[in-house]
Design goal:
Layout: E1 2-6, H1 8-15, H2 25-28, E2 31-35, H3 37-49, H4 53-65
Parallel strand pairs: 1-2
């Protein structure tokens, strides 16, 4: 599989099942997904600042483990 580094916005769209993720899905098929350390930090910050931070981070952590 060919690797691809996902932008924070794309990861967010995928995590939230946002309709904007559909634009990127054809390019992401049959690719190995990676995220940068900065994307990981931004996702952690988002989860900690969100309402229900503990539950949001648990979901985010599980999602990023699949990348």
């Amino acid at each position: 599989m060919k690797p691809v580094v996902l932008d924070t916005d794309v990861v967010s769209f995928l995590f939230k099942s946002d309709t904007r993720a559909q634009i990127y899905l054809p390019e992401l098929q049959d690719r190995q997904w990676f995220i940068s350390f900065m994307t990981e930090a931004e996702l952690e910050q988002w989860a900690l600042l969100a309402t229900g931070a503990k539950s949001a981070w648990t979901g985010c952590d599980c999602f990023s483990a699949t990348l």
